[in-house]
Write a structure and sequence with these properties.
Chain lengths: 259, 523
């Protein structure tokens, strides 16, 4: 299976390579040699695959099996994005040479030719499951719901199906950046549980499930617990049948925002 | 009143002459800040005590100045109520009462200039006699008239088209201005230069990578030395009695792939002691032989006198980027003591001569090797501080590891010559601290934890305080004896600079730059 995947991707790589090499390189900072997809793949696997998946199909980071990347309209923008990162979730690739960048840009572009994953579930039935299961009490999707958990309007563009399924089964294993659960015990003994919105050495800012903001000075607290690996989202493993889960995953995977 | 103010200002400007005697006797005028670290011994200690542990909680902003460029790393020079600040290819004199500029100076940056491996920045100026000295990104040392900001001379130090640059504050000593260069990621051959302060004529140059026939050249092979790195981008220190200039040298090139440059690669990752008159090497000490982590030894050296086995010795100390704290004899370079001050996984310890004993997982690999500290080290360019009241060295410490990669990178002029790189740990796995180390031994006396690895230097004061800043914009004061936090202020910008202290109208002020704003605080 793995060798088939590699074979298929090499075909796509070749197609992308031909397209890219037909473009005239910009005069400034032009790479010395033509983009090398094999070299780009090595860089991708070493630095990018941890979040984007070994085949670029997504994980903690979005799937790159898309012809259009929402944050990188063209190769120049993609190069800049890889070089500078997306703080704080995506690290910078400042140490990559012009040639490295050119190689990895070409490889990422080649992933756009990989066909979309075929999912077993029915998105329409999944939408009904989403509506009746209380998801909107914590998530906003297409403008509806409460913004305590992550926004889901474009979740299908940001997360692969396997990651979506994993989150529904074991949400504590895939907590996204920016959703660290905190329990702060004030000097009077009051416990405040919420998502960390910001933090520095002296202060921390939280939002609880009701949407209340809290501004706390750490010195005033009796205790500050960082509940790493904990989340208020329940596991749906025992709540949905396998078919319902497939439907819900298909629904979420279809949420890709504006085309 | 306005007339009086004008008169006072004029009087200040007329007296703004700074012979070397004033700099070397800086403790006689604690209200001024006449060299990068206030004193030539690199201590960044202020003898002012009006702001102290009892009243620091009442510290307030007096004024703020907005720089034309973001991410400033400047430490101001302060002479009789006037602050002199710099930015990339720019400088300004500011009225210490109001923060309003008295003059500004700017030198255009050529359109083909590029910073390879660092941002457009400048860390400060030097002063001597009637001139302010500024080093520019495109390689000029400029002598500006203190009264007007007009250029009196400029000397071409380097060719930026070869990847060289300058970001540090020069160091003014007797009749000379010393500068170092950036470009350790661009395959340069580093050097330290001295210029005649009156004329701008070059007095001497010391190449940090020895050429054929010079001692140390045998630690390189073939033509490696030509692109061997050894940048010198942080201001050094000076002992006027020994007449020795102390200066840190940066990493070898390429940074992360040592296979192509076998040997110790002298004098990279070393401290040098140079004769102030001739630039000749008196001694060197290499902290990280054959470095493969970008652990420059470009730090402000701390010169202090201490007791070693019952004997008073002239010492030099540094918390090195490689996560070890070192104490050396500053007359001879002899290793006295050394121990880790931050998490490190690359060395089992130091041998009797201070040379590291490597672990088996000390090198970058093609697949990536997890090593502490990350490339920015246990601490980096920003200043430590030494307080004679506590005999502690205060260090701004970064606790962060990284996966280090090795790659093949051919040298091409004026391009990134790194031979690899690193993937840092995620933000929540990294943290920082201010640590107080016993100066003679490096023993930890206290620690104040920070939310993230800092980029700010440390100031200690006779008020029993330690000031520093955080990457989240907190500027804060700690008790110098205990590390207890006593005051903090949210500046709104990441702090990548060193604090300073001086008098304005007879009252103590503290300054810090945060992003593009210089804040001045007082009671």
């Amino acid at each position: 299976m793995r060798s088939l995947l590699i074979f298929l991707s090499s075909l796509f790589l070749f197609a992308a390579y031909a397209e890219l090499s037909a473009q005239a390189p910009s005069a400034e900072n032009a790479p010395v040699e033509k983009p090398d997809l094999t070299a780009g793949k090595v860089i991708f696997e070493g630095h990018c695959s941890l979040c984007h998946g070994i085949d670029g199909g997504g994980g903690r980071g979005p799937s790159l099996h898309r012809a259009k990347l929402s944050r990188a309209a063209d190769d120049k923008a993609l190069k800049s994005l890889i070089e500078n990162g997306i703080p704080p979730e995506m690290p910078e690739g400042w140490y990559l040479s012009e040639q490295d960048l050119s190689n990895v840009v070409a490889f990422v572009r080649s992933l756009g030719s990989v066909p979309a994953e075929k999912l077993p579930g029915d998105p329409q039935r999944g939408g009904a499951i989403y509506a009746r299961s209380g998801c909107a009490t914590c998530h906003i999707l297409a403008g509806k719901g409460t913004g305590f958990g992550p926004e889901l309007t474009e979740v299908g563009a940001r997360r692969g199906a396997a990651q979506l399924r994993g989150t529904l089964l074991s949400p504590s294993k895939t907590i996204p950046e920016g959703f660290l659960l905190i329990e702060a015990i004030t000097s009077s003994g009051e416990a405040i549980r919420g998502i960390r919105l910001n933090e520095d050495t002296f202060t921390i800012q939280l939002k609880d499930a009701q949407g209340h903001f809290y501004s706390l000075r750490k010195n005033d607290l009796h205790e500050l617990k960082k509940l790493r690996g904990e989340t208020l989202m329940p596991s749906y493993e025992s709540l949905f049948s396998a078919a319902e889960l497939d439907d819900l995953v298909a629904y979420l995977a279809s949420q890709r925002g504006q085309p | 009143m306005r007339l009086l103010a004008l008169f006072l200002l004029a009087a200040t400007v007329v007296s703004a002459q700074v012979p070397f005697e004033r700099i070397v006797n800086a403790d006689k005028e604690p209200g001024n800040w006449l060299t990068y670290s206030r004193t030539l011994d690199g201590k960044r200690f202020s003898p002012l005590g009006e702001i102290n542990t009892q009243n620091v909680s009442q510290l307030k902003v007096k004024w703020a100045y907005q720089f034309p460029d973001p991410h400033t790393e400047v430490s101001p020079i302060v002479i009789d109520g006037i602050l002199y600040v710099t930015g990339p290819n720019s400088a300004a004199a500011l009225d210490g009462r109001s923060g309003r500029s008295l003059w500004t100076w700017k030198r255009p940056l050529p359109s083909d200039y590029q910073s390879i491996g660092f941002g457009h920045t400048n860390r400060g100026a030097a002063v001597l006699d009637d001139k302010l000295f500024v080093a520019t990104l495109d390689g000029f040392l400029v002598g500006l008239d203190l009264k007007s900001g007009v250029e009196r001379w400029s000397a071409k130090v380097l060719d930026y088209k070869l990847g060289y640059s300058m970001t540090m504050a020069p160091l003014a000593i007797e009749g000379k201005v010393i500068v170092g260069v950036s470009g350790g990621e661009a395959g340069i051959r580093g050097f330290i230069d001295a210029y005649d302060a009156r004329t701008g004529k070059q007095a001497w140059r010391f190449w940090t990578i020895p050429g054929p026939g010079e001692p140390g050249h045998e630690t390189w092979s073939g033509d490696d030395w030509k692109t061997g790195g050894g940048a010198t981008w942080v201001t050094g220190a000076y002992d006027p009695e020994l007449k020795l200039v102390y200066w840190g040298v940066g990493n070898p090139g390429p940074d992360w792939n040592g296979d192509v440059r076998p040997g110790d690669n002298l004098y990279t990752c070393s401290f040098l002691a140079l004769d102030a008159d001739t630039g000749k090497l008196s001694w060197y000490f290499q902290f990280t032989p054959h470095d493969t982590h970008d652990w420059d030894a470009t730090h402000v050296p701390i010169l202090f006198d201490g007791q070693v086995q019952g004997q008073k010795r002239k010492l030099i100390a540094v918390a090195n980027r490689n996560a070890f704290y070192y104490v050396l004899d500053r007359t001879t370079g002899e290793f006295i003591a050394g121990k880790p001050y931050a998490k490190q996984t690359w060395a089992k310890g130091l041998d009797a001569k201070g040379r590291p004993i490597l672990t088996t997982n000390a090198e970058p690999t093609a697949q990536g090797a997890m090593i502490w500290p990350n490339l920015n080290g246990g601490t980096v360019w920003f200043s430590p501080s030494y307080s004679p009241q506590t005999d502690f060295v205060y260090v701004s410490v970064r606790e962060i590891g990284a996966r280090y990669f090795k790659r093949v990178t051919p040298y091409r002029v004026d391009t990134f010559f790194a031979g690899g790189g690193e993937d840092e740990l995620p933000p929540d796995d990294a943290w920082g601290a201010i640590r107080a180390l016993q100066a003679e031994t490096g023993e930890l006396r206290w620690e104040f934890k920070l939310f993230s690895p800092p980029w700010a230097g440390v100031l200690s004061t006779a008020g029993g305080l330690v000031f520093s800043g955080s990457d989240e914009g907190n500027f804060y004061a700690l008790d110098a004896r205990t590390g207890k936090p006593l005051w903090d202020f949210q500046t709104g910008g990441a702090i990548d600079a060193n604090p300073s202290s001086f008098l304005i109208d007879g009252h103590q002020c503290i300054s810090i730059a945060a992003d593009r704003v210089l804040y001045v605080f007082g009671l």
